[in-house]
Design brief:
Radius of gyration: 22 Å
Strand order of the largest sheet: 1-2
Shape: globular
Strand content: 5-15%
Structural class: mainly alpha
Number of domains: 2
Length: about 300
């Protein structure tokens, strides 16, 4: 196994161990808001993705009478999980860190709920079983109630007509990624624009998300580079996998540090980790808050 891949296993295990301890020690901590319950579920999904990254990085093997392959690592599959991890972290940040007040957080969270329920309303009722039809009817009522709550909120009523229209269009089109600028105007956020709003600056974020997107879809570039990665004597698939894991470590670190800001009691568990693990996480945090602004991103 490549030394680079082995190093990825060591680092990934440290993150998995940290996330697991947080989950086991704090999952039943009391919550003050419905959103905090979903934050705990988001923690579980991030841990699941980290575990699946480890499984993919281990490679797959197959053998029959005419074909044999051992420890095959597919960087495209790795990238697909990495992109999902990135978007999960961005969702957490959009709901919890980007909003600058509790009112903003409430509004964005409500848009998040509406977005999910409205997407599910797209199923054809006639094809659903009776219990699912009833669920769809109940969720339609919930959408109406959530929409009314937004329209009656002090924040919504304080917005300009343009910003109110943006919120109304977000409800109509299942959107929830927004922030409020210094003029209290609602501004749309693309995936790659979320992290700069929580202190992680630099054009490389856009490049990283674009790279993940290219390889997570069967684009021409993705197909072409897949063929090139496995040419005889080529180690490109190792290099691509290592670069992808570097990004994943940064995403795992951003979530971890901001999750602890949101739930400070977790610091008690964090400080029980080995000192070398905490030093690694803090080094990664320094890197994601400084290095992303440089063109020379090294690991």
């Amino acid at each position: 196994m490549s030394d680079n891949i082995q190093s990825c296993f060591i680092i990934l295990d440290k993150y998995i161990n940290c996330y697991t301890k947080i989950l086991m020690n704090h999952h039943k901590d009391p919550i003050n808001h419905e959103l905090e319950g979903y934050d705990k579920i988001l923690l579980q999904t991030v841990l699941s993705k980290a575990m699946n990254l480890k499984n993919i990085l281990s490679g797959v093997s197959f053998q029959d009478d005419v074909f044999r392959i051992e420890n095959f690592i597919d960087p495209v599959v790795l990238t697909t999980v990495a992109r999902n991890l990135f978007e999960t972290v961005c969702t957490f940040e959009t709901l919890n860190i980007v909003p600058q007040s509790q009112e903003q957080k409430e509004l964005i969270f409500t848009l998040f709920l509406i977005s999910g329920y409205k997407n599910r309303q797209n199923f054809n009722y006639s094809e659903l079983e009776d219990d699912l039809k009833q669920q769809a009817v109940e969720e339609a009522r919930m959408i109406e109630n959530y929409t009314q709550n937004i329209h009656e909120s002090n924040l919504y009523q304080s917005l300009s007509l343009d910003s109110q229209h943006r919120i109304d269009n977000a409800i109509k089109n299942y959107k929830y990624r927004f922030y409020f600028n210094e003029n209290n105007e609602v501004v749309k956020l693309d995936w790659e624009e979320v992290l700069p709003h929580v202190g992680i600056q630099g054009s490389l974020l856009r490049k990283i998300y674009a790279q993940l997107s290219i390889h997570a879809h069967p684009s021409f570039i993705s197909v072409m580079q897949f063929g090139q990665m496995f040419e005889l004597e080529s180690q490109q698939y190792i290099n691509s996998s290592t670069v992808c894991m570097r990004h994943c470590f940064f995403f795992l670190n951003i979530f971890l540090m901001d999750y602890m800001k949101l739930f400070p009691q977790i610091m008690n568990t964090y400080h029980t980790l080995p000192e070398e693990d905490m030093a690694l996480f803090e080094m990664h945090y320094k890197m994601v808050t400084t290095v992303f602004s440089d063109e020379d991103l090294t690991f």
